[in-house]
Amino acid sequence: MRKPDLTGKSVVLGVTGGIAAYKACEVVSRLRKLGADVYVIMTKNACEFVQPLTFETLSNHPVVTDTFERPATWEVEHIALAKRADVFAIAPATANILAKMAHGIADDMLSTTVLATKAPVLVAPAMNTGMWTAAITQENCAVLKQRGVHFVGPDAGFLACGDTGSGRMSEPAAIVDAIAALLCPVQDMAGLRVMVTAGATRERLDPVRYMTNDSSGKMGFAVAEAAMKRGASVTVVAGSVTAPIPAGCEVVRVESTQDLYDVVTTRAPEMDVIIQAAAPADYRFAVTYTEKHKKAHDGQPLVIELIENPDIAAAVGTAKKPGQTLVGFAAETENLHANAAKKLAKKNLDLIVANDVSQPGAGFNVDTNIATLITRDGMTECPLRTKKELAQDILDKVMEIRNA
Asked: How many CA atoms lie within 13 A of 401 on its CB side?
């Protein structure tokens, strides 16, 4: 495997007070061998495990340990390092630093600098199993993931305290690979034209009333953003959404399911990958009114007839071109795998993302999801994770299908 070239890239590495601090020396060494410029910030407790001189020798830069230390050059040190970072990594990341980051506490040089940075942040947790599995630690990690912080590990194994379980810091090679992936993101979708649908459709009864659902667009936008970062040219067809539309993609706005059908079926022939994450309404009103429909005021129930909307995924599947990859979503509340597998076959999909929207942390208008990726060859379970993480899982599977 060809090693990444990190020449010209700056990595700020935070080292906190855990026994795994000695492994951070190898992280610095490996990054330097790949050409990266590495700047180390150590907490006071980290200095009890490894001397700053070790990191200064390996990085060829002074190590920062004190917020109020006079810098060698006149600049506000924590701001200078925050701006200098192309990636900000913390290894090991103790429960203490994770808690500070989750709650915006900036009481030392490391926590102050990471709060100020705009660079991607990667943490490699390392702690006792009890601390890692503690509810508050898991809550803090969930908060950080929702904010876009990247995680590598922790691994399971024999810990320094004598316990065996999760909490062991990932190996330096894995941490460096994760840093390199952020610095040199994979471009395996370069040249591909991708269409992603997102959000809910609205079916109007009259000018002030409509029927819709709770889709926010978060899942579709996460997929679109991930595809762009992997080099694809992305078209987003968005209905009603509450999440911000990612910058850099072509955007087509629609309202009704018929609108969505018209755009998707018209644009589908020019696409290599079509990912239908939108939640179109299955039915529309048989009659729509040009003026507000008034109440009868006679106490009688209002009877409204609904008619079925066109099946967009089925239409795209029927007209599928050679070389196209079609992805659908199945939001279910029962018989998840069986119902999704039927849709996969019936609509001529290559992949369907099935999720039980009744589960906590899954479904509409939340930042996380739980899904099963189903192809004709099998199923891959994706336990609770952020929608951005699931988006990468989906695209990994898409590329696996295309390269098979």
From this structure: 23
